[in-house]
Amino acid sequence: MSNEGIEGTERFLSPGRGQGLRAVRHFAVGELVFSCPAYTYVLTVNERGAHCEHCFTRKEDLFKCGKCKQAHYCNVDCQRGDWPMHKLECVAMCSYGENWCPSETVRLVARIITKQRVTTERTPSERLLLFKEFESHLDKMDDEKQEMNQVDILSLHHFYSKHINDLPGDQALTELFAQVNCNGFTIEDEELSHLGSAVFPDVALMNHSCSPNVIVTYKGTAAEVRAVKEIDPGEEIFNSYIDLLYPTEDRRERLLDSYFFLCECTECSTKSKDNAKMETKKLSSPPEPKEIQSMVSYAKNVIEEFRRAKHYKTPSELLEMCELSLEKMGAIFADTNVYMLHMMYQAMGVCLYMQDWDSAMSYGEKIIQPYSVHYPAYSLNVASIYLKLGRLYLGLEKKTQGVKALKKALSIMEVAHGKDHHYVAEVKREITEQK
Predict the structure, then answer these.
(1) 352-389: per-residue pLDDT in tens?
(2) What is the model's pTM?
(3) Packed helices 289-309 and 315-329: angle between N→C axes, nearest 10 degrees
(4) Do the beta carbons of residue 408 and residue 386 sit within 8 Å?
(5) Taking Cα atoms as reference points, which of 60, 65, 91, 67 lies closest to residue 78?
(6) What is the 3-state secondary structure (H, E, C) of the chain?
(7) Which residues form the signal peptide (predicted)?
(8) pLDDT 10s digits, 324-345
(9) Longest dimension (CA), the chain
(10) Measuring CA to CA, how many Å separate 40 from each of 128, 222, 260?
(11) d(Cα 330, Cα 321) in Å, to the nearest integer?
(12) pLDDT value, residue 118
C-alpha cells in the first residue's frame, strides 16, 4: 500500500489520550498534511437531485437511477462506481416506496456491513488506523444512548434484513453503531450545509483539541487535513471534534457526552476566551452569578428545544422561537455572548429558508465580528458567514460590500480548503464577475 499523503506523519501513543498522530516534519499554515478517501459514505436524502450520489459533485443536470428514481449521477461512470453500495438501497427503496425512511446512520452502517463483506485487505483510508480498531465506548454509554442504539438496530433489520443476508448479531451491531457514532464524520459544503455522512479511519486517528492545529475539509467524498498553525516535527496533530464557539464548561460537556473524555487541552485549562464568550450587558447593577447560570441553563434548553422543533414547527414558528429567546437572553447577555450568537445564527438560517434576505443579512452582520473573535483563525464557521453575507449583499445589489465579504471568506478558504479547491475557484469567479 502506498504511503502517499501520509508522509510526514506517524501513529504514536499519545500520553493520556491513547493512539494519536504526530508530525515527523514541519508543516506550514495551509499545507496539506494528508488526504483520506472515505472508507464508505452516504449522501443525505435532502441533497438528492442536487449532488451526485457517487462523487458528491453539485450539478443541475444529473440523471436518475432508472430503477429507484431517487439516486442521481453525473454520468454512467459515477452510476457504475456507486452501484456496489447503491444496489442494496435501490432494491429496498423500490420495495418500500414512500415508507423507506432509515436514518442516515442506519444507511451508513448498512454500507459498512456490505463493504466489510467484500473487502478483506487494508483499504486506502486505513493506512494508519483500521476500521476494526475504532473505539466503541460501549461501557460508558448511558441508558438513553443504548436505547437509541437499539432503535437503530431495529430499523436496520426492518429496512435491510430482506436485502442483506445474515446480518450480524445484536452485540456486533451494537458495537458497530457505537463505533460509527464515536468516529463518523459529517461531510459539509462551503456554507457548512450538511451533504452526508462518512467514515475516514485515518482522520479519526487524530485526537481532539479546542485549539486545533489542523482543519478537516472535503473534496467530493475525500477528507483533506490542512495545517492552520505551524506544526513542528514531534508535535501531535490535533483536530477539533466539536463546534468551538462555546465556553469551556459547555465544550467539555459536549465532548464528554459524545466522545466520553474530559478535555484537558490548553484552551480548556486556561479558559482564555470564556469571559469574552460569556459577556453580559453593561447594567447599573451587574447580574448575579446565579442569574447568569440560570440564563445559561435556559439557553441550553432552548437550543435543544429548537433542534427538536425543526422537525415539526413551521419556519415562522421557528423564527418566533429565536426572537423570543433572544429577547429573554438579551436582558442579561450582550449581543456578543455565544448563546445569543447561536440563536441569531439559527434565525439567520430560518430567514434564508424563508427568503427574507434583509433579515438574514441583518443577523449575519451582527454575528460576523464576534464570530471572528470567538473562533480560532481560519475557522470554517467564520468563512461560511462571510460567504453567506457576500452572496446576500450581491443579491441585494450591494456590490462593494458583497465583494469585500467574499474576499474575507476567500482568505480563510484558501488556507482551510486549499487554493486549488473547486469551492475556492467558485468564489473567485463570483468576485471576478463583479468587476
Answers:
(1) 999 999 999 999 999 999 999 999 999 999 999 999 99
(2) 0.94
(3) 180
(4) yes
(5) 65
(6) CCCCCCCCEEEEEECCCEEEEEECCCECCCCEEEEEECCEEEECHHHECCECCCCCCECCCCEECCCCCCCEECCHHHHHHHHHHHHHHHHHHHHHHHHCCCCHHHHHHHHHHHHHHHCCCCCCCCCCCCHHHCCCCHHHCCHHHHHHHHHHHHHHHHHHCCCCCCCCCHHHHHHHHHHHHHHEEEEECCCCCEEEEEECHHHHCCEECCCCCEEEEEECCEEEEEECCCECCCCECEECCCCCCCCHHHHHHHHHHHHCCCCCCHHHHHCCCHHHHCCECCCCCCCCHHHHHHHHHHHHHHHHHHHHHCCCCCHHHHHHHHHHHHHHHCCCECCCCHHHHHHHHHHHHHHHHCCCHHHHHHHHHHHHHHHHHHCCCCCHHHHHHHHHHHHHHHHCCCHHHHHHHHHHHHHHHHHHCCCCCHHHHHHHHHHHCCC
(7) none
(8) 999 999 999 999 999 999 999 9
(9) 70
(10) 17, 10, 24
(11) 14
(12) 86
Residue labelled with grid coordinates 451491531: 173
Q: Which domains does the chain have, with CATH numbers?
A: 1-38+200-270 (2.170.270.10), 273-369 (1.25.40.10), 375-435 (1.25.40.10)
Under 8 Å CB-to-CB from 226, ≥6 apart: which residues? 30, 31, 32, 33, 214, 215, 217, 415, 416, 417, 418
Pairing of the two strands 222-227 and 32-37: antiparallel
The mean pLDDT of 185-190, rounded to a whole number, is 97
Q: Which pLDDT score is estimated for 2?
A: 41
The cell numbers describing 92, all together, are 429496498
Report how far apart the first and last C-alpha atoms of the chain are (Å, whole number).
48
pLDDT for 76: 96
For residue 415 the three cell numbers come to: 488556507
Phi then psi for 315, rounded to 5 degrees? Answer: -55, -40
Q: Which amino acid is at 54?
A: H
Question: Residue for cell digits 466489510?
Answer: 116
The residue behind cell 442483506 is: 164
Phi, psi torsion values for 139, nearest 5 degrees: -70, -15
Q: How far, rounded to the nearest angstrom, does the alpha carbon of residue 27 sit from its chain's CA centroid?
A: 24
Burial class (CB in 10 A: 0-12, 13-18, 19+), 314: exposed
Residue type, 198: A
Give which of 33, 7, 6, 11 is closest to 22, Cα–Cα.
11
**Cα separation, 70 vs 47, whole angstroms:** 11
Grid coordinates belonging to 41? 459514505
Residue 3 φ/ψ, nearest 5 degrees: -100, 10
Are the beta carbons of 72 and 62 closer than 8 angstroms?
yes
